[in-house]
Amino acid sequence: MPGGPGRREAADFERPRRVPEPASALEPSVTKDVKPKKDLETCLEQTRGFVQKVVDRFGLKFHPDPEITETVIQGLARNQHEHGVRYCPCFVVQFDKAVDRVCPCKPGLNEEIPRDGRCHCGIFCAQDYTGDPYQPAAAGA
Ligand code: SF4
């Protein structure tokens, strides 16, 4: 009977419907984090500038063996090229912020260089590093 307790109001039939979004509407969120790849030569050039800045900023020097320095530069550049991030080339990339090292990494700067004279990869060294084992110059010497 119209108006009775069993009557359903028009609003009951106007719940918002879930309309599937067209695929094109999803594209920005799917692609927004994907950085365009830089070519390897560009990454190499930029990485050479980057490692020089790290050395200057933290008062370090490169490894006394230039082959080690060059190998690490190439690894950093390759990670920049492949992942858009200069992950440490001496560890397998896990894509986990909690474990991946991004250069220059905190363990390298805060622990390894003061303790060992060099970061794990060896590219960044304390000024008084001459090779392994590290023999820090005596204080005041
Ligand atoms: S150990 Fe750290 S500072 Fe050294 S190359 Fe790897 S990420 Fe860079």
Set out the fold topology.
Blueprint: H1 23-31, H2 40-58, E1 61-62, H3 66-83, H4 106-116, E2 124-125
Antiparallel strand pairs: 1-2
Helix pairs in contact: 2-3
Iron/sulfur cluster is lined by residues 72, 88, 90, 101, 103-105, 108, 119-121, 123-124.
Account of the 3D structure:
This protein has 4 helices and 2 strands. The chain has 141 residues and is mostly helical. It has a domain at 40-125: Ferredoxin thioredoxin reductase catalytic beta subunit (Ferredoxin Thioredoxin Reductase, Alpha-Beta Complex). Strands 1-2 form a two-stranded antiparallel ribbon. It is globular and about 50 Å long. The chain binds iron/sulfur cluster.
Please tell me the CATH architecture of the domain at 40-125 by its name.
Alpha-Beta Complex
CATH homologous superfamily placement of the domain at 40-125: Ferredoxin thioredoxin reductase catalytic beta subunit
**Percentage of β-strand residues:** under 5%
Number of helices: 4
> Ligands in the structure?
iron/sulfur cluster
Q: Give the overall shape.
A: globular
Give the CATH topology of the domain at 40-125. Ferredoxin Thioredoxin Reductase
Number of strands: 2
User: How confident is the prediction overall: mean pLDDT?
Assistant: 83
Q: Low-confidence spans: pLDDT under 50, at least 5 residues? A: 1-5, 10-17, 19-33
What is the spatial order of strands in the main beta sheet?
A: 1-2
Helicity level: 40-55%
Summarize the main sheet.
2 strands, antiparallel
Secondary-structure-based class equals: mainly alpha
Cα-to-Cα separation, first versus last residue: 102 Å
**Cα-atom radius of gyration:** 28 Å
- Quaternary status of these chains? single chain
CATH level 1 class label of the domain at 40-125: Alpha Beta
H/E element order: HHEHHE
